[in-house]
Amino acid sequence: MKSHVPVVVIGGGQAGLSVSWYLGRAGVEHLVVEADTAVHAWADKRWDNFTLVTPNWHCKLPGYTYDGPDPDGFMTRDQVVEWLHGWLETFEPPLVEHTKVTRLQRLSGDRFELTLDGPDGMRSVTCDQAVIATGGYPLPVVPPFASSLDPAVHQVHSEEYFNPEQLPDGSVLVVGSGQSGTQIAEDLHLAGRQVHLAIGNAPRVARFYRGRDCMTWLSDMGLYDTPTQEYPGGRAAQEKTNHYVTGRDGGRDIDLRRFATEGMKLYGVLTDGKDAELRFAPTLTAALDRADAVYNSICGDIDRHIEKLGIEAPEASRYEPVWAPEVDPTELDLAAEGVTSIIWAIGYRPDYRWIEASAFDGGGRPMQTRGITEVPGLSFIGLPWMHTWGSGRFLGIDRDARYVAEHVVESVCDGRARLVVAQ
């Protein structure tokens, strides 16, 4: 490892490695630094029955697309890992693994100094361009009152959950109704565990509608390609949790109301707790109604798209609730209900404290335009909504990586070279 490298990409996931793919083809000397191993999160932070929620044809990386037998299906965790390793066999990124960047400091003369902690100890490397590819929200969130709950209750974050067998016998409380929370609740429910689910404001979407996957319709409608500044709903829409749905067993809706008819117990937002007593806001009815309204609204958008283009498709329909709570529950006695485990699925938060540069807003999020910041030489890749709704997903990574790489190549070459890659 040299003491100076023109470009350092920090993070060896699919986003950082996509930038590396383009830099390599442009002949730009660079280094990719990964704290663990390449694309390790797919194998290490997904539960055993995990599947993609986007169709396989969405899976596109530089020089590599899904070409398997089921483009409209949903790869399992292990299939995604195999697919990604197949991509890594198509090129040789200058990757250093098991090495963490603990500090990035801007020096005079428009250079950065990186402090690296690896197998051989601490060392420093300087670079002209730093591309941050560590993910948008690396720190799992657990509420402050979690430590005051009964220590006999086993607590894990969603990224630590793999299967029902790892949990003690008894009922399980899942907190959070985003994609991970609802799918983990389903996983436990299908395994025969008594599940309690505290839901928030996450919307939902139909898996299939009028003969096609909803996400295929939305892609055709341009929703994944619309720039953030033009997206309907603006910042408020971008801050919402992604719609919950599943690709399990070929794909289907996640209908929490149906789960309730089968014995799952639903609650509103968890607000507080101590020992074995938990308290919830009376928001369950409104949350279910709101999720269903979004579901039907998306179906309506698809209907208008079909009508506008004169597409032949099965008849339109709308979701009708199969269950409604008689009253919104506000309390749960963990001991009385036999709850022995809690799975926190309430998301992640950003953590860029190791970067010493004025590139962040008051909430600690990068201030960037398509990954490029106002700090010369500092850029980001792999952020949710970095450019479009597709950013951060397989569908949008290639486009985002190419844009960032083009900027880096022009900067390193003082504008004398442009990225030219055969598509």
UniProtKB/TrEMBL annotation:
InterPro entries referenced in this protein's UniProt entry, alphabetically: Auxin_biosynth/cation_transpt (IPR050982), CHP04046_FMN-dependent (IPR024000), FAD/NAD-bd_sf (IPR036188)
Alphabetically ordered keywords of this record: Oxidoreductase
UniProt GO MF annotations: flavin adenine dinucleotide binding; monooxygenase activity
Keyword Oxidoreductase attributed: yes
Cited Pfam families: Pyr_redox_3
Claim: Oxidoreductase is one of the keywords in the record: yes
Organism: Gordonia lacunae
Name of this chain's protein: FAD-dependent oxidoreductase
Gene3D superfamilies: FAD/NAD(P)-binding domain
